[in-house]
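Hi there,

I know you've been waiting on this one. I reran it after we fixed the sequence typo, so this is the corrected version. Both the input and the resulting structure follow.
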Amino acid sequence: MNDLYSRHRRALPDWLALYYDDPIEISHGEGRHVWDSAGRRYLDFFGGILTTLTAHALPEVTKAVTEQAGRIIHSSTLYLNRPMVELAERVAQLSGIPDARVFFTTSGTEANDTALLLATTYRRSNTVLAMRNSYHGRSFSAIGVTGNRGWSPTSLSPLQTLYVHGGVRTRGPFAHLDDRAFIDACVADLKDVLGHTRPPAALIAEPVQGVGGFTSPPDSLYAAFREVLKEHGVLWIADEVQTGWGRTGDHFWGWQAHARSGPPDIVTFAKGIGNGMSIGGVIARSEIMNCLDANSISTFGGTQITMAAGLANLTYLLEHDLQGNARRVGGLLLERLRAVGAQLPGVREVRGRGLMIGVELVRPGTDEADPRAVAAVLEAAREGGLLLGKGGGHDTSALRISPPLSLTVAEAEEGAAILEQALRSTY
């Protein structure tokens, strides 16, 4: 046990998860690669849990942060803040929400917390609809709408949460149906739930479930839900903490795969926009955002140094069409991994879109989740020089692949080859 690991164990909570039997310290990064403290280089296919959106040590972001730090780092939202206003204007314009207002937080958890506060206040209801297998953060209220037992340490909640079907396409009672029938069944389930409760404040949903293993419904499911929700005045919160900023390739926001019935009422975001700096936020129609009747500020949300990073990162993302790159390179990577998976009995499904790819593993000859195999592949991939993530719900276990969106074709091929060898060594 190395010295830093021993100190970690003594100073930090037991429940603070670490990857690998022999945890590594990441010392620095560049592009799509990181190095550990022993000098070993890795191709990064997890991006700090989908946070390093463009590239490690992106010069444009580093320059913006350094220059801003030389002026002022922080002043709070009690003062006018030019970088915050500029980023809010750009995010509002990109959101697709009419008359949008933006509130910055420090994390996705805090963003979802704020969205729940807004929705329950606006609707005067503490009932919330959420998706099974979902994850929305680690705060008390965010845990209360998280439909994933592995990330829910308490059943206590300030909210009454009702869970509906639809987030997982290939498991559950509707898995055998075709896409149209699947959507119809999920809509019928939603209508049935609404018939048994007082009017909810909102439905909160990830367009692609992140921690749940990169699962998603057929396109247009949430558009069909939206039609039902509108009839009851129920708001739609799209949790874009992991899906936003072009990661899915086909769309800038994950909700745009479900856009037939219009945009969400509220969108939450975080992770990638800061490229490692701590930025989260909420976008909402003005009448929803302005519904609070008490004072509120954010001490660290929207601080100048993080806003400078966000502006530089977003500019780079758009000017270099990284969404298009995610679509092209992600498509090649997805097909390459599907070809590998088709040859291995433990690979149940390779799914995803853009550079958000899940590889679900099962015990060969069964449909049972195989978390031990996922852990073994994670270790073998690390030995081969590749960092991956993992996730899944109560009966699933999946590898999670989410590299920076500047990933090259050559790097995608390199990572796929390492992952193939890790899978073959496990099965």
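Quick highlight: The chain has a mean pLDDT of 97.

Best,
R. S.
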